Structures are given as structure tokens and as C-alpha cells.
Amino acid sequence: MKGPLFYSKILLFGEYGIIKDSKGLSIPYNFFKGALKSDENPSEEAKSSNKHLKSFVSYLETLTLEQPKLVRFNFEALKKDVANGMYFDSSIPQGYGVGSSGALVAAIYEQYAENKVTVLENLTREKLLKLKSIFAAMESFFHGKSSGLDPLNSYLSLPILINSQDNIESTSIPSQNTEGKGAVFLLDSGSTGETAPMVQLFMEKMKQEGFRKMLKTQFIKHTDACVEDFVNGNVKSLFGNLKQLSHVVLDNFKPMIPSKFHQLWKNGIDTNDYYLKLCGSGGGGYILGFAQDIDKAKSALKDYNLEVVYNF
Questions:
Q1: Which of 16, 105, 148, 202 could potentially form a cystine with 136 if both were Cys, beta carbons 3.0 to 4.6 Å apart?
Q2: pTM of the entire structure?
Q3: For the segment 100-159, what is each residue's pLDDT rounded down to a tens digit?
Q4: The dihedral of CA 121, 125, 131, 132: what is its sign?
Q5: Under DSSP, is residue 211 helix (H, G, I), strand (E, B) or coil?
Q6: In 82-232, which ranges are E strands?
Q7: Are 312 and 177 in contact (CB under 8 A)?
Q8: Which domains, ranges and CATH numbers included, belong to the chain?
Q9: What phi and psi, each to the nearest 5 degrees, are found at residue 216?
Q10: Which H or E run contains 268?
Q11: Do 291 and 297 contact (CB within 8 A), yes or no?
């Protein structure tokens, strides 16, 4: 048995900001993927995944009791498959900010939800918001609080533009220019990050008036500008705003940046060879980078593992 593939995602812009109604832009990343599967002779990894699925199923049962109108599942089939050793076979690294739990949520919904919201034809805003709220409730099992965007991205396999919390739409982004020197890349921090403690830290910081003001006047302002520039292909303006955004993150989100990257982050801003930003909640996992000249960035970051995800 093998279910359909679900891909990882990258939130290009909007981490933390979307909690406070900034714009956001999330794109599918087909390099990593996962599918529900069962084997005759499961590996240790498969057994561990199966164990997690058992807990997830219990959580979903409670969820459907508490919110019967939100979503219903065919628990008979789901429990039977889990009892028979079903697991999530995934190449998506966990704790790296590329949506490992989102892909699993999308896969379970696709396979076992009853009265599914159909997305093949006529993808309305109502449908998107309905799916987002279902996925947010499902994914809360993994993070404590979820926006539902990661599973939505994985489920649709389309770029999603977040205008505000209750205004989202699928969007198109400028098609890749494989000859282009500009690039978005992932930098491997070499350690995993936990989403829940980072979000907790952010919520603590939100209690300070100065931090709230910075978020509104600087972080959200530059995030919104980056989203507009990226979607509209305004490369020159994009890099001006990215530099500002990278600076704001370094000054105000230091705990979310692994300490050995603080200097590297600053070097990018000082030399303009690349600009770094958080990928997901930070604390480890991937760091997202943008470069106007990827060769320059590669030579400046030659000691690090760098993966290009988009050229322009």
C-alpha cells in the first residue's frame, strides 16, 4: 500500500509576522516529500512513525468529538491501517522548518477525511479558509499552535499568498529563470529546531511594548514589501527590502538564530553578498538565504551546506 505524495513547503516570507496579520508567501518545495505507506518488514524508523500515528489518531478522535462540525474521519479504516503498521514514509527532515508535520496532516486528510473539501475545481476563498481551519486544528497536535498553512500548501501544491489571517489565495509567482544569477537558497544549520519553544519565546517578547512596536513598524512593513516585490518580480526593490528585513531579524530575533550564525548573518548584510532570514520558527533547521549573485554567495558560504531552491 502506498498513498499519494505530499511535498514539503517553504514559507518565503511571513514567519512570526502572520501571527500578527502580516502578509506571507509560501511555496511548495518538491525536493522533499512523504507518503503514507505500509511494509511487510517495517524498519525501526517506520515503527517509530507508526507509534506517532497512533497518538495522532487519538488526538483526532478527541478533536472530532470537540468540534464535530469541523471535520470527520473514517476512523474505522484509519485505525485498521495504523494497527496494520501504516507509517509516514518521508524524506522531509523534521525540525527544519520545511513542513514535515504539514505533509503528514495533508496525507491523513486526503486519505481518511469524510466530505472532503474539493480543490480540483473552483478553489474559492471560502474553501481555502475552511481547509486552513481544519488543518490548523489537526496540526496543533504537533506544535501546540498552528496556522494551518503548511498542510494547506502541501495539500494544494500551489504557492499561497497570505494577505491577512482571513484573506488567503492561491497565487502564481514569476516562473524560474534557470539562467538567472539571483537565487533563493537553504542553508543547513546542522541542528534541528523545535517550533513550540520558539513560538513561546515570541509570545513572551510580544508582552513588551517596544517589541510590538518594532514588529508593526519594521518587521511587518518590510515583510509585506518583500511579498509584494517577489510576487510582482521587482527584483531590485526586493533586495533593498530583504536587507532591511535581515537587519531587523538579526537585531530583534537573535534567540531564534543559532548563535554560530550571528556573525555570518551580519557578514551578509555588510557585504551584500547574500541576506539571511528565518525559515519557519528558527532555532535550528534551515536558514533561508537570498542572493543577487549566487556564485558570490556560494564562495562567501563555501564552508556551509547550501541548497538552491529558486532562481530568478
A1: 148
A2: 0.89
A3: 999 999 999 999 999 999 887 788 889 999 999 999 999 999 877 788 889 999 999 999
A4: positive
A5: helix
A6: 87-90, 113-114, 160-164, 167-170, 183-188
A7: yes
A8: 6-170 (3.30.230), 183-311 (3.30.70.890)
A9: -75, -50
A10: helix 262-271
A11: yes
